[in-house]
Design goal:
This protein is of the alpha+beta class and 132 residues long. The protein contains three helices and five strands, in the order αβαββαββ. A three-stranded antiparallel β-sheet has the order 3-4-5, with no helix packed on it. Strands 1-2 form a two-stranded antiparallel ribbon.
């Protein structure tokens, strides 16, 4: 019983130290800009028209809500479902201007809080969700 108590104290101390290290590392990522560049489409269209429909815009960096995280995207895909979305033939109809790219990967740089959200800070993640 004594060995179990000592083990629990050591593990609790270790978990607290790891949490502190993650939070300190995340603090160095706190220099998140207010805006970012985003590739946006001004209207729906086929790949032949992408050149005239694409713009690069400066948009506000989203602020994560409770249960959400902000990912600094390293890579994002454009696949057939994105092409259908851009063409306006996907189940969800885009409202111009809109972005494409439902999937990607990157590093979590901010959290809106929630259960154990601090554990995601600084982690590499992949995601699938709504386009910007």
């Amino acid at each position: 019983l004594l060995a179990l108590s000592i083990t629990l104290i050591v593990l609790t101390s270790f978990a607290s130290k790891v949490k502190q290290e993650v939070l300190e590392e995340a603090a160095t990522m706190a220099d998140i800009p207010k805006t970012m560049k985003a590739i946006r489409f001004s209207a729906c269209g086929t790949p032949e028209r992408y050149g005239e429909l694409l713009t690069i815009e400066e948009v506000d960096v989203p602020v994560p809500k409770a249960g959400e995280v902000l990912v600094k995207v390293a890579f994002s895909t454009l696949n057939p479902s994105d092409a259908a979305f851009i063409a306006g033939s996907y189940a969800k109809q885009p409202e111009p201007p809109f972005g494409a790219g439902f999937e990607g990967c990157g590093v979590v740089v901010s959290s809106g809080g929630g259960f154990m959200a601090w554990r995601l800070l600084g982690k590499r993640v992949s995601f699938a969700g709504d386009a910007l």
